[in-house]
Design a protein that fits this description.
The protein has 289 residues and is α+β, with helices and mostly antiparallel strands. Helix content is 48%, strand content 9%. A hairpin with a 5-residue loop joins strand 5 and strand 6. The N and C termini lie far apart (91 Å).
């Protein structure tokens, strides 16, 4: 590419306005805030490059995108898909048809922003409130290509771990409402993930909300019963203080929903015969019978 051609393409890209690719929750390519319609192959190409930020060798890229197509044909499909995008300077390939392909450095990608947040969260003070909305969605849910599944699970593990750790730090700092909300985001993203449930239960207990903690434990056990046929030993029971009030938990059996009712009080007879009444935030002694 000549210098004049390169300058012309750079001017076109600048005049087109900011370009952004989103792959969290759904796919979009926008230029200056306007959505760019793409065909199926072009959409897959742009999404792949958004998920894989490093330059991609063309033969390997074509093989991933069209795994059942012979090499010469897949190479043509790749060239056609790139040309059909029609957004100046979206790709950083210097106009060389044999060069590796990547999105241009100035193209914004929501996944890159989310990964930056994951890396930054451990160093953000607990009295700051970063926007963690980017950590609430999976990469391209509903897309079934093998290359997506690998990156989707990798990002899922990273973002859930970041949310759980943030919740624990907030609870330690006494910001219990924020800790609960952070852990709830993790549980919504991974309902069967034990560490997310643990973070939420610990946040409830740190807040003194024992009833909510038990209800969360009960929900998790019910999920296990419906998904794998029964509760599995998890260690979550150890989060609750040893007491005759918790015989069901200590026996590693699911807590029935009737054990906790909100609002109001309910008497629970302990193993020793003494009765205690569960309340939101703790328990108070009852009368022996």
């Amino acid at each position: 590419m000549s210098d004049d051609e390169r300058r012309s393409r750079m001017m076109q890209a600048h005049s087109a306005g900011p370009r952004r690719v989103t792959v969290l929750g759904s796919f979009t390519l926008t230029v200056d805030g306007a959505t760019v319609p793409l065909g199926v192959d072009s959409r897959r190409l742009v999404a792949y490059l958004a998920v894989h930020p490093r330059p991609q060798e063309r033969p390997a890229l074509a093989a991933d995108l069209w795994p059942r197509v012979a090499t010469p044909a897949s190479a043509r499909l790749l060239a056609d898909a790139a040309a059909a995008v029609g957004v100046p300077e979206l790709f950083d390939d210097d106009g060389d048809e044999g060069a590796p392909v990547a999105l241009a450095a100035d193209v914004e990608v929501d996944l890159a922003d989310a990964m930056g947040l994951v890396r930054a969260l451990p160093d953000i003070p607990t009295n700051h409130d970063p926007d963690v909305a980017l950590l609430s969605a999976d990469i391209l849910p509903g897309w079934t290509a093998p290359w997506i599944a690998v990156e989707r699970e990798r990002f899922r593990q990273l973002r859930l771990h970041a949310l759980e750790e943030r919740s624990l730090r907030l609870a330690s700092a006494g910001r219990y409402d924020e800790a609960v909300a952070m852990a709830q985001t993790a549980v919504q993203a991974g309902p069967s993930r034990e560490s997310a449930r643990r973070a939420l239960i610990e946040a409830h207990l740190a807040q003194g909300n024992i009833a909510a903690a038990v209800a969360e434990y009960d929900d998790y056990q019910e999920l296990l019963r419906s998904s794998v046929g029964g509760p599995a030993p998890s260690g979550l029971e150890a989060l609750f203080p040893p007491s005759p009030v918790w015989p069901v938990l200590r026996a590693r059996r699911p807590m029935p929903r009737s054990a906790v009712q909100l609002p109001g009080l309910r008497s629970v007879r302990g193993a020793s015969g003494a009765t205690r009444r569960l309340v939101a935030g703790g328990s108070v002694p009852g009368t022996s019978r």
